[in-house]
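Support request, please re-run this one:
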Amino acid sequence: MEGTIAERRLRARGGGSAVNSPHEDSFREFVEGSWHRLLRTAYLLTGDHGAAEDLVQTALMRTYRHWNRIVAYEAPESYVRRVMVNANISAWRRRKAVVHVVAEPPEPTSGASGDHQDTYALRDELWRAVCAMSPRMRTAFVLRYFEDLTEAEVASVMGCAVGTVKSQIARGLTRLRGDLQADRTERADQAEGRTR
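Re-run finished. Output below.
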């Protein structure tokens, strides 16, 4: 069967082709050209590879249905990103509680030059702290710092005021600093207890 995943799903539902033939090629090119960027954003929003793929596919299905209208936008990828954020927000509202189970990171080594273990440990520590944020705060962080959008663009994608984005980021930074400091203090106390 030919076509993108979104096209195949739509046809399987009996929807036929929602897009005129000239636009099918442009949709296919769009998906092929932006899939990896969209998947990366979805992973950063969800923190899970499977959920990220589902989120991108859902967004592309919703976009495909209205591609004739969306293709006229200067930046259809921004539109799809907005659809992903909205779909992810809907998923948060359906979930009662989210539990992130992660293994404890390895203990940091002390000063091995040329070894990247400390860098990876710090990255893992930072990622765990970001995943522990509320979904709305994490979305603001992902769009602002990972996607490098301006605060106004983040507000537009999230459908909220710029002030809301600023407050989410400010509270998130404060929380990150506190979480990272608490983790370092705890590890230092544990290391000190072992050396006694």
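The two ends are 67 Å apart (CA to CA). Confidence is low (pLDDT under 50) at residues 14-19.
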